[in-house]
Specification:
Shape of chain B: globular
Number of strands of chain A: 10
Shape of chain A: globular
Largest interface: A-B, 31 and 25 residues
Number of domains of chain B: 1
CATH architecture of one domain in chain A: Orthogonal Bundle
Helix content of chain A: 25-40%
Structural class of chain A: alpha/beta
Radius of gyration of chain A: 18 Å
Strand content of chain A: 25-35%
Strand order of the largest sheet of chain A: 6-7-8-3-9-10
Number of strands of chain B: 0
Distance between the termini of chain B: 26 Å
Largest sheet of chain B: none
Number of helices of chain A: 7
Oligomer: heterodimer
CATH topology of one domain in chain A: Helicase, Ruva Protein, domain 3
Amino acid sequence: MTAAVKVQGLVVRRGRTTVFDGLDVEIPRGRITGLLGPSGGGKTTLMRTIVGVQIVAGGTVTVLGEPAGAPALRHRVAYATQGASVYDDLTVEQNLRYAARLLGVPASDVPRVMADVDLTSQRAQLAGALSGGQRSRVSLGVAMLGAPDLLVLDEPTVGLDPVLRQSLWGIFRRLADAGAALVVSSHVMDEAMRCDDVVLIHDGRMLAHTTPQGLLETTGARDADAAFLALIDRASAA
Amino acid sequence: MNPVRTLATAGRVLRQLSHDPRSIALMLVAPSLLVGLFAWLFSEREGVFDTFGGPILALFPFIVMFLITSVTTLRERRSGTLERLMTTPLGKADFIVGYALAFGLMATLQAVVTVWFAVVVCGLQVEGPLWQLGLVAVIDAILGTAMGLLASAFARTEFQAVQFMPLLVFPQIILGGLFMPRDEMPDVLYAVSTVLPLSYAVDAINAVTAGDAGSDLWRPIVIVVAFALGFLVLAPFTLRRRTR
């Protein structure tokens, strides 16, 4: 089966700085790919490129067989931005209902998603009145409407308690098992261990694309944090 | 364009408003208060309010809707929700028309309230039929909405959007024929005033209050509508699916 996302020779410039200068990466279907690395390294830019909202200076980005951002992909690719992109002056349910109507997803999908992100009892509350973690779950819920083939989730679990993180990773796993490709970014390295594959991005370069186990083995580190530091050390020494 | 997604967007904007009753109250009542203030100011001088009350009726709904629309759409650009919408099947025109429908409805309510207040409470004398006054006020408010949608594209912050008032709105008020009949203006300023939509909004109101009919009334109305439609047609081009 072909990769869900194929990035070849990607060049992205923002102002005078070059974020990527010839990045290649492939993201498979049916797996959770963790996009890891310190903030400012290019994770969000790569995600924006995949969903097709980033102006690209060079290279090709193919998503589900189409160029990134193609109109046909707008039903099939779901994107949750880092800051929760929800309407603070709408309730949880109204936020999800609006997104469902845009996507052509039946309204019956809304209660299912509210249960998945554990917001059923907050359904009638304004998003602006929720805690930070709850707001980002509304945003995540919007991305989980319908059955997208690719979910691009920018720091979806940041600021969430361990119980909820556990349950969300359970949902990510279920989506991947059903065949969807997931790209999940995080700067919390221990989340790497929950992914099938990890892509380490630092300073616009891909330092590694491996499995969590492979990451530990190649570096000889005991945990993901140490492995990542070892890789950065190696990269700056080279 | 897709009617389902356009209407969904209009409904969403109205639902957002419904959670903000204070804004609705301000939107509906503020122009009436200003008209009332104006009527009170000239209450000792016979006939002044009848001369200026009409143009004022064109002005305030226009200004209020311009401000509300430009700030609201800018908030959408800045909060990240617009970027997210641009990854969904929502068309750019769906977005603009959805906003125009929602605020057009609010503009209509506002115009009805303001005209009622001006005529019934403040005693504005109108030669033409009242529905024409209402129609022109609605069209002017929609013009403000359309201009606000377009203007918000050129502002990066809410602060900048508000700064567009002195830049885009005040010159139209000064040259619109309120302070001096347009045909008595210096030639250059008269020429400028002929390309400003608010001039025709004031012409239309004056035609109604004077009881004009035929082309004196309909020509400025058609021109204002054309400006509003033109702004709405241009506005989607200011939306970008891809940004830096």
